[in-house]
From TrEMBL:
Keyword Protein biosynthesis: no
Assigned EC number: 1.1.1.25
Function summary: Involved in the biosynthesis of the chorismate, which leads to the biosynthesis of aromatic amino acids. Catalyzes the reversible NADPH linked reduction of 3-dehydroshikimate (DHSA) to yield shikimate (SA).
Protein name listed in UniProt: Shikimate dehydrogenase (NADP(+))
Family statement: Belongs to the shikimate dehydrogenase family.
Pathway in which this enzyme or protein is active: Metabolic intermediate biosynthesis; chorismate biosynthesis; chorismate from D-erythrose 4-phosphate and phosphoenolpyruvate: step 4/7
Class of enzymatic activity (EC top level): oxidoreductase
NCBIfam families: aroE (TIGR00507), PRK00258.3-3 (NF001319)
Residue positions binding shikimate: 15-17, 62, 87, 102, 220, 248
Limits of the Shikimate dehydrogenase substrate binding N-terminal domain: 7-89
Positions bound to NADP(+): 78, 151-156, 218, 241
């Protein structure tokens, strides 16, 4: 029987996940289909009960339900619990297990796309929202030397560092981070600044950027933000948000099927869709 997978969120209409997963199911000869399920916030518990009752094999979870699903699951992986958000649920013979593949997906995309080892690197994360949490805790699992956080609301960066590892991390205002930019090998924007339709906005000034470093932006709409373009012009190697989107999906796919999909093919499909 064909297995059912899907995405629950609100809204979900513009998701590119069905494109990636359905193509991978076909290419790997897996009889399964990925669907979109628009779930209103007050229906999250009922939706998870539905996953259980209908024997849906696995779901992704997106905004705003990533923290909300946690109480309804049988088990939550330690890292997802630390992040406080689940984006992937595996239905293991009726037992619903929650994971977070966003942060690990980001880190894997960074290492593979930029062909870089994070060992002993000095990393700056800009932003302290939902995207930043997953990325920060996943970076803490690497051998990076420093993972500092800068955010408009400094208290949120401070909280994240307190939850994470205050020995390896400091927190700054955006203005302070601008002054210290030359200290970092890798600078990551996890804020929504520069996202469509406000494409002229930039999260912080790159004036003190050291040439030769890596500048990464998790925004994928537009695919190349103005900030990334400026970083490239200043001699940085740059990475956009498509990699994170694809690798979080690939890691979820692997948890569901035990198979690693063709990430380059997934990336190509996502890029084509974003161009349209
Ligand atoms: P979020 O939880 O709402 O966090 C937003 C972050 O942006 C906060 O740090 C916030 O700072 C900062 N921010 C917002 N407006 C700002 C402004 N005008 N000036 C300075 N800082 C500002 O959002 P999120 O879920 O983390 O998503 C952030 C971005 O990441 C979005 O563009 C989203 O599309 C993208 N994203 C991409 C992927 C991917 O797969 N590539 C995955 C997840 C998210 P304050 O704390 O001060 O409000």
């Amino acid at each position: 029987m064909e297995k059912v997978y899907g995405l629950i969120g609100f809204p979900v209409e513009h998701s590119l996940s069905p494109l990636m997963h359905n193509d991978a199911f076909v290419r790997l000869g897996i009889p399964a289909r990925y669907h979109l399920f628009s779930v209103e916030p007050e229906q999250v518990g009922a939706a998870i009960a539905g996953v259980r009752a209908l024997g849906i094999a696995g779901v992704n979870v997106t905004i705003p339900h990533k923290p909300a699903v946690i109480p309804f699951l049988d088990e939550v992986d330690e890292q997802a619990r630390r992040i406080g958000a689940v984006n992937t649920i595996v239905n293991d013979n009726g037992r619903l297990v929650g994971y977070n593949t966003d942060g690990p997906g980001y880190v894997k995309a960074l290492e593979e796309e930029m062909d870089v080892s994070l060992d002993d690197r000095r990393i700056l994360v800009i932003g302290a929202g939902g995207g930043a949490r997953g990325i920060y805790f996943s970076l803490l699992s690497t051998a990076a030397e420093r993972i500092d956080i800068a955010n408009r609301t400094v208290e949120k960066a401070e909280r994240l560092v307190r939850e994470g590892d205050a020995r390896r991390s400091a927190y700054f205002s955006l203005a302070e981070a601008e002054k210290r930019l030359a200290e970092y090998d890798i600078i990551i924007n996890t804020t929504s600044v520069g996202m469509h339709p406000h494409v002229e906005a930039q999260p912080l000034s790159l004036e003190r950027l050291r040439p030769g470093g890596i500048v990464s932006d998790i925004i994928y709409n537009p695919m190349e933000t103005k900030w990334l373009n400026e970083a490239k012009a200043r001699g940085a190697r740059v990475q956009n948000g498509v990699g994170m989107l694809v690798y979080q999906g690939a890691l979820a796919f692997e948890k569901w099927t035990g198979q690693w999909p063709d990430v380059n093919r997934m990336k190509q499909l996502v890029i084509e869709a974003l161009r349209r």
